[in-house]
Amino acid sequence: MMKFGRATALKIGAAVGLSVLLHGPAAFADEQETFKSLDLFSKVFEQVRENYVEEVSEEQLIEAAIQGMLRSLDPHSSYLPAKDYDAMRTDTRGEFGGLGIEVTMENGFVKVVTPIDDTPAYRAGLKAGDYITHLDGESVQGMSLDEAVEKMRGGVGEDIVLGIARKGAEPFEVTVTRDKIKIRSVRYRVEGGNVGYIRISRFNEQTQPGLDKAIRRLNEKAEDGIVGYVLDLRNNPGGLLDQAISVSDTFLERGLVVSTRGRDNANAQDFRARPGDATDGLPLVVLINGGSASASEIVAGALQDHGRAIIVGEPSFGKGSVQTIFPLPQFNAGLKLTTQRYYTPSGRSIQAKGIVPDIMVQQAKLEKVESRFRHEADLRNALTNDQSGGADTAPADEGADTTTNGAGDEEPAIDNSTDLAQQDYQLSRAVDLVRAISLYRGMSDQ
């Protein structure tokens, strides 16, 4: 917690200004302007503290000033007070409390980047692209992103009413019950008997171990062997850079994964894959959409640039910046600051552009429809087939088990009891593509 005595608060501008004068690398004229600006801040600070209609603590004013400074830079830089700093560290470990929703601020409203799988927000039906306009009836306009996030946090079992604006729908409210969020970042299943489906919901410390296990278990579960993989990064908001690099490395034989560059080119870094592809070069399709951001885009961009995977779906979110956490131990707090941009192996920056899929596939709902065609057998007095024994008109076994996710697995990848590709158009197209590539390679090898 930051504590400022009255005398200290009055001297902040002068003290920092003097430090700039003595040690700053800028020209003397610039130092004078800095001193004037800091002196202005000190005077405004004192006027607000003394004359504002309600009493405001010095700590509140200082923290608000810091947040305002950082928010003016970009949407991802922020000051992390003790509570938020602890929550951030917990998040990267893969367990935290709240609604299970990744958000950003856009046009004064809280925008949903993605609801995290199997969380209260996900179960309540929130979607990527939704705008949260009200929290328990209070408008979010005028709130900072951190303030809105703080209001969405609370005790396990407590409800919060979210006002939602969704494109193509009337504004509505949804009640979400807070819960302890445990993130299982990797899920997997055998799709259609021989295609390995791997979903990564975010990149935390558990992601690479989960991916290694998924590849191993999928190969064990497929009776006739895996012919290829679908890597689902849809609605994945990102996470740890080192995990994104590691996941990319899993599928790459060699080469550059990502490079990062900041203001000082001397601090530029290149991250490369180690020799060895854990999937032996089997066909790979990566699914992305508008909820795929940051670390997800690093993986998709690396695999796309190397020609290792075909990217299918919709353009990604377009977050091409890297945030560094600077601990402030004397205040038990932290500073999240955008320090670098990242670039794909070909040198592309995806900032505000996103990764464009190789094959654009919009999400759609698959439904069975009755055929509009009539057949010979439908015609009145149609001749019968003299070779038919009647077996060809027998109905299919309605009790047949279509489950392919290994229900006996102690860690089922997906809880659905039916084949996901029957319900998910993008996934269906990805699975078809994997099989087509595998078939083509098999024919080419003959």
For the secondary structure, the number of strands is: 19
The fourth-level CATH homologous superfamily of the largest domain is: 2-enoyl-CoA Hydratase, Chain A, domain 1
Biggest sheet features: 6 strands, antiparallel
**Computed Rg:** 27 Å
* Total tally of structural domains: 3
Binned strand content: 15-25%
CATH architecture of the largest domain: Alpha-Beta Complex
The H/E string reads HHHEHEEEHEEHEEEEEHEHEEEHEEEEH
Q: What's the CATH topology label of the largest domain?
A: 2-enoyl-CoA Hydratase, Chain A, domain 1
- Parts with pLDDT < 50 across at least 5 consecutive residues: 4-21, 390-418
Short description:
With 446 residues, the protein is α+β, with helices and mostly antiparallel strands. The chain is built from ten helices and 19 strands.
